[in-house]
């Protein structure tokens, strides 16, 4: 499951509607909505995000958060290391190969390192 999928599921459950009901109301197939909620679909379109926000009648802060989560929830990530030192490419490929084997504590550590590097920019 992706962060966006979890947010949509929470919104849907809060409203008390099924995937099928929501899909019909926003004009997508139940299969698409199910795949999205299970993290099997990529980043949703801007149009889809607007329909979701309208359907749930959420405030702007929640809309911003929903859009942010959508942008960071693509389960198939492409990392472009062209022009970077070879160690970067090796690291990106190793991470792609081994990410499923990493324990949550290691993921938390990597997230902390990334957040620290962003604050230094």
Query: Portion of residues in helices?
Result: 55-70%
The count of strands amounts to 0
Looking at this structure, what is the CATH superfamily of the largest domain?
lambda repressor-like DNA-binding domains
The tally of structural domains comes to 2
Name of the top-level CATH class of the largest domain? Mainly Alpha
- Strand share of the residues? under 5%
Low-confidence stretches: none
Q: How does the helix and strand content classify structurally?
A: mainly alpha
Q: Please describe the biggest sheet, giving its number of strands, its sense, and whether it closes into a barrel.
A: none
How far apart, in Å, are the first and last alpha carbons? Answer: 30 Å
* Average pLDDT, all residues: 91
| CATH architectural designation of the largest domain | Orthogonal Bundle
The geometry reads as elongated
Can you tell me about this structure?
- The chain is mostly helical and 121 residues long.
- It is built from 7 helices and no strands.
- Helix 1 packs antiparallel against helix 5 (60-71).
- The two termini are 30 Å apart.
Comma- or semicolon-separated keywords:
elongated; 121 residues
List the helices and strands and how they pair.
Layout lengths: L2 H13 L3 H8 L3 H8 L8 H11 L3 H12 L14 H13 L5 H16 L2
Helix pairs in contact: 1-5, 2-3, 4-5
Task: Give a quick rundown of the structure.
This protein has 7 helices and no strands. Helix content is 67%, strand content 0%.
């Amino acid at each position: 499951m992706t962060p966006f999928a979890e947010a949509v599921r929470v919104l849907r459950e809060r409203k008390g509607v099924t995937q099928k009901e929501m899909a019909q109301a926003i004009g997508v197939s139940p299969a698409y909505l199910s795949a999205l909620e299970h993290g099997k679909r990529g980043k949703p379109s801007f149009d889809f995000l607007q329909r979701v926000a309208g359907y749930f009648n959420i405030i702007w802060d929640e809309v911003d958060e929903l859009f942010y989560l959508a942008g960071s929830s693509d389960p198939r990530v492409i990392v472009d290391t062209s022009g970077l030192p070879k160690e970067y490419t090796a690291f990106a490929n190793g991470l792609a190969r081994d990410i499923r084997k990493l324990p949550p504590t290691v993921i938390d550590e990597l997230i902390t390192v990334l957040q620290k590097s962003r604050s230094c920019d």
